[in-house]
């Protein structure tokens, strides 16, 4: 069982849900819990044990599961072990907008909270 990660994940085929790559890259870079993982994926920087020891549980989880993550055009995705699909790692700063786009717009069909959440997973 893979641990839950605090950044919201969206199941998709390399899509970015209407966000530009630049917006996603910038917001992912601001998300503190992703810093160690992004440094490793971008520059192969291995954090020291002291850094990991003092890090949040989320950072430790990302690091232990680093092989599940990949960058596509600079945007962080989590590989799904059971398929070729990838989950977009969406920082909390963009969650509200993503939820609104999948709930409030007429084409979303106003499915309600449970169905909207299921659609976004």
Task: Outline the structure in words.
This protein is α+β, with helices and mostly antiparallel strands and 121 residues long. It has helices spanning 21-30, 35-43, 49-54, 57-64, 92-101, 113-120; strands at residues 8-12, 69-72, 75-79, 86-90. It has one domain (8-120). Strand 2 (69-72) and strand 3 (75-79) form a beta hairpin. The radius of gyration is 15 Å and the shape is globular. The chain starts with 7 loop residues before the first strand and ends with a helix. The model is unreliable at 1-5 (pLDDT under 50).
| Residue windows where pLDDT falls under 50 for at least 5 positions | 1-5
The largest beta-sheet arranges its strands as 1-4-3-2
The rough form would be described as globular
Total number of domains: 1
Helix content: 40-55%
Number of helical stretches of at least 4 residues: 6
- The sequence of SSEs as H and E is EHHHHEEEHH
Q: How would you briefly describe this protein structure?
A:
The chain has 121 residues and is of the alpha+beta class. The protein has helices at residues 21-30, 35-43, 49-54, 57-64, 92-101, 113-120, and strands spanning 8-12, 69-72, 75-79, 86-90.
């Amino acid at each position: 069982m893979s641990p839950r990660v605090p950044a919201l994940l969206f199941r998709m085929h390399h899509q970015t849900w209407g966000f530009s790559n630049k917006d996603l890259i910038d917001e992912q870079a601001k998300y503190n819990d992703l810093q160690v993982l992004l440094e490793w994926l971008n520059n192969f920087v291995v954090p020291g044990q002291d850094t990991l020891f003092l890090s949040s549980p989320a950072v430790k989880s990302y690091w232990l599961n680093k092989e599940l993550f990949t960058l596509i055009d600079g945007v962080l995705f989590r590989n799904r072990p059971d398929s070729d699909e990838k989950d977009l790692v969406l920082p909390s700063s963009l969650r509200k907008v993503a939820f609104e786009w999948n709930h409030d717009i007429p084409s979303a069909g106003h499915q309600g909270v449970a169905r909207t959440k299921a659609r976004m997973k």
